[in-house]
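Consortium newsletter contribution from the modelling node. Members have asked for a concrete example of what our holo predictions look like. Here is one, prepared for the 6-O-phosphono-beta-D-fructofuranose complex that several groups have been discussing at recent meetings.
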Amino acid sequence: MARTVRSSAHAAKKGTMGRKPRIRCIAINTGGGDAPGLNAVIRAVTIGGIQRGWKVVGIRDGYNGLLMPEQYPDGGLIPLTLESVRGITHLGGTILGTTNKGNPLEFPVRQKDGSYKTVDRSREIIRACRKHNIDAVVAIGGDGSLSIADALYEKGLRVVGVPKTIDNDLSETVATFGFDTAVSFATECLDRLHSTAEAHRRIMVVEVMGRYAGWIALNAGVSGTADAILIPEIPYDIGIVAEKTRARVREGKKFSIVVVAEGAKPIDGERSVLSKEIGRAEKLGGIGETVAAQLQELTGQETRHVVLGHLQRGGTPTTFDRLLSLRFGAAAVRALEEGQNGIMVALDPPTVLYVPLKKATRRMKSVPLDSDTMKTARDLGICFGDEFPK
Ligand code: F6P
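And here is the predicted structure:
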């Protein structure tokens, strides 16, 4: 990670830290795909806020609780108390609900002719915050939700962001919460698949999430001793992957495990996109099935594919993710108390620091091809579909 994190003093000079605000009420929002650790952040923010004498409320389903309050019996806002956040640290999901549809900056509105146009509803969110006397929002999200948070900050809302995503693709933090849990789960799945692959002398292709970054595939693939790992950062040649599995058979190892990131693409083809809808990110998937069919065809070896899908997002957060989530939540409250605005809390071990939201959302964090983990993978003989096995 580039050392771009600002100290409080620097931030004050640059304008992300104004005069200390008088805070009476803060709102928490969880947007985009859920990730294990969301509830731990909600708990830390709630307890931290209440300890400072602030009222804390949760916005339902992203910003829908503010944009469509009439759709909620409770008006779209949940009062958060010490009682309501008790016992939630270890729970997956989010007690507030979330959505990755209907980006408020490009909200899809159906026209009479059935077509859609998009409208920017960010000012409605700001007006609703004023109406409910919300002085600041803690926005917990990935790149999409944090870009929305930055737009709200630009329009005058006090915002602090918390980086969440199993994809680990945010550039200004060493880790996002949720990633460790997803990788741990995927690794366990690879462990389980080894025995059945070996028993049947099959190739098992495992599709993992991660959008356009290969973090989950790489970390789980190396830890779970995959034979080939296909990541978006390295377009693959399926012939090379097939040769890797053939080489293993020649060496007497009659099975192979191939991990494919959902965003991986062949050198001569496109990424596998399932759907593209207005106001939401494109939906990836299907590459595992394609790779499995191609490998079976090329090698003649029986091949199966498994899509880990949303299982990677469910369940209880690992200790690492719980602690990171609690640290991020507590840091977000301290940031607000200090007068920070328009920033995201970020992990720069051993510290949690602040980064401007704009910078945090400017570029995606891809797997660096010269990273130590990549070198380790190559030293272990793992194939990335770009070089024939030696
Ligand atoms: O960004 C998190 C993530 O789980 C990606 O890895 C995946 O591509 C996407 O969300 C799936 O989104 P949905 O829940 O809409 O299927």
